Amino acid sequence: MPMPDFELRKECPPQLCDCARDDLLRDPQADIAILRLTQMEEKRLLAHIEGIASHAQLKTLQQRLRHNLGVVLQIAPGSNEVRTVRGFHIELLERPGLCRKTRATIPAAVRRCLATHPEIAFAILNENDLLGGA
């Protein structure tokens, strides 16, 4: 397989990660866009997420993650009562090439953003009709 013209994410220790990076690189039909998320780019992304100030910016981030990296960031109220940002179900869906650590750090950054900007959390609740349009 020819090497892509962009820097790839470095290999994770095999015992610590389940990203299947090597399998992804071996498959000529695989979408390797997720491997563009290097450790430096991940740090920039986390800083960007924590700097989000509106629900519209968060929605745009979700769309860009899907379009540029092929990953889906789901944010929804949890099945129980939402009293704090811990009550939200925030998940980066698993896919080949996406590190376990990344699947944990991005939702954590979103939680920090929601804690800093409760109006975004209320917008998410309202979007899911939990506030009944109040």
Total number of helices? 5
User: What does the average pLDDT come to?
Assistant: 86
Strand content: 5-15%
Low-confidence sequence ranges:
none
**What is the C-alpha radius of gyration, as a whole number of Å?**
16 Å
Distance between the termini: 55 Å
Q: Compute the number of strand runs.
A: 2
What spatial order of strands do you see in the largest sheet?
Answer: 1-2
Report the sheet with the most strands, covering strand number, pairing sense and barrel closure: 2 strands, antiparallel
Structural class by sheet pairing and helices: mainly alpha
* Helix percentage range: 40-55%
Order of helices and strands: HHHEEHH
Large-scale geometry? elongated
Structural features, described:
- It contains five helices and two strands.
- It is mainly alpha-helical.
- The chain has a two-stranded antiparallel sheet with strand order 1-2.
- Helix 2 runs parallel beside helix 4 and helix 4 packs across helix 5.
- The model has no long low-confidence stretch (mean pLDDT 86).
